[in-house]
Specification:
Elements (H helix, E strand, L loop, with lengths): L1 H17 L2 E4 L8 E6 L2 E5 L13 E6 L3 E7 L11 E3 L7 E2 L5 E3 L2 E6 L4 E6 L6 H8 L8 E8 L5 E7 L8 E7 L7 H13 L4 H9 E6 L4 H6 L22 H14 L4 E7 L12 E3 L4 H17 L8 H4 E2 L17 H6 L6 E8 L4 E2 L2 E2 L2 H22 L2
Parallel strand pairs: 3-5, 13-14, 13-15, 15-18, 16-17
Antiparallel strand pairs: 1-4, 2-3, 4-10, 5-9, 6-7, 6-10, 8-9, 11-12, 12-14, 16-18, 19-20
The structure holds zinc ion.
């Protein structure tokens, strides 16, 4: 009997020592530093690269050679959302928030691999790279209301997509510039943008009316290099893309945008909107908000737009007026935040021109809006609300 026990014990150790997990981030948007793997636990943190201070974007693939529960421990605080993390078992096509039982604490989650050599991807929130955009935009390629070209090339030579959407058979009477991913890690903006674009092209009376009068320029990935490389992008040194609108631009995309927007808007009324995501979690970061502009005329327009957005909202993303507008001078929204350079919204508001109707930053959370879970579908549904509100705003401002 004793011999048998020893045999099984030896077998168990041997079995356990064969369990192996490999971690990598060698794909678009990938980002991780694995510090160590001890026993059944992987210790990891985000690769900050050229980021000043801490940030929280990470996205990796794990392959377990056998069915087994592994633990993933963040070695830095505040790199998991209040829902933990997302996972995908299909190579990153569809993402789900992990079940509550697997979100063990603020810095720890587990995952049970069910097949040998199963590859599972994990990330802070559902990643979105050029491949996602291509999949989304392909069905619209022959639509005559959309022109797909490039803003130019990024600093590392990647094409940076530019969409123009309008009824091109008649000249527009107003223009809208919409940007996403000035901060590479802020992927939720692209799901909102998908909702905006699909609604714009949905053929409803209100959208057709908007497109008959307005031309939109949409840049889905302002920091294309950062998105594909898996950078944080936020607080990039020496300054990030959204601090690159004063003095000489150091990024090709912001430089080009500053060159072409004044001519493109001509002397027409226009609106500029920069889509962002806030900090990872907690009070002030788990609701949708508009960042109040220092320019009183622009601020007034932002407040009006917030009112319309609140009234137009049909999706399950809750909005509250007291949170939806963050006044200039409150929280982080102060002059001190712009010492490294101007953001898009400040630059656009500086056009000394009555045609500048509104410029704004919109913050949309990664995981939770109040107590409601954010998913790609819900972000798209919010995008639909957003563009209907913007259509109503334009109708009011440019009757
Ligand atoms: Zn941002």
């Amino acid at each position: 009997m004793k011999i048998i026990k020893t045999f099984f014990a030896a077998l168990f150790i041997s079995y356990s020592s064969l369990a192996q997990i490999t971690i990598d981030a060698k794909f678009a948007g990938g980002n991780v530093i694995v510090e160590q793997i001890v026993g059944d636990t992987v210790y990891f943190k985000p690769d900050l690269r050229d980021t000043e201070g801490e940030w929280f974007y990470w996205y990796f693939r794990a392959i377990s050679n056998e069915p087994k529960t592994w633990f993933f421990k963040a070695t830095k605080p505040n790199i998991l959302t209040n829902l933990g993390a997302v996972y995908a078992t299909d190579g990153g096509l569809t993402w789900q928030w992990m079940p509550k039982e697997q979100h063990l604490n603020a810095n720890l989650f587990s995952f049970t691999f069910t097949e040998p050599d199963q590859a599972v991807r994990f990330a802070l929130a559902p990643p979105y790279t050029q491949a996602n955009f291509e999949k989304f935009i392909t069905p619209y390629q022959d639509d005559e209301r959309i022109e797909i070209s490039t803003l130019g090339q990024s600093n590392q030579g990647r094409d940076v997509e530019k969409l123009l959407i309008s009824h091109f058979d008649q000249p527009p009477t107003s223009k809208i510039v919409l940007l996403a991913r000035a901060h590479a890690c802020e992927m939720m903006s692209n799901y909102v943008l998908e909702g905006i674009v699909s609604t714009l092209l949905s053929g409803t009376t209100k959208m057709e009316k908007l497109l008959a009068q307005t031309e939109l320029m949409i840049i889905p990935f302002l920091d294309k290099d950062g998105v594909e490389n898996g950078d944080q992008g936020k607080n990039r040194l020496p300054r990030d893309h959204n601090r690159d609108y004063r003095g000489e631009s150091i990024y090709a995309t912001t430089k080009t945008l500053r060159e072409i927007v004044p001519g493109w808007t001509e002397d027409l009324p226009w609106v500029g909107i920069d889509l962002h995501n806030p900090w990872v979690k907690g009070e002030g970061h788990e609701w949708v908000y508009i960042v109040g502009n220092a320019n009183p005329k622009v601020e007034k327009a932002q407040k009006r737009f917030a009112e319309i957005l609140l009234a137009e909202a049909r999706s399950s993303i809750p909005l509250k007026m007291q949170d939806l507008f963050m006044a200039y001078g409150s929280s982080w929204n102060t002059g001190g935040n712009y010492e490294k350079g101007w953001p898009f919204s400040k630059w656009a508001a500086s056009f000394a021109n009555e045609n500048m109707l509104m410029s704004t930053t919109l913050e949309f959370p990664y995981a939770l809006v109040y107590d409601k879970v954010v998913t790609p579908e819900k972000a798209r549904a919010f995008g639909k609300d957003f563009i209907y509100a913007l259509a109503a705003f334009m109708e009011e401002q440019v009757p």
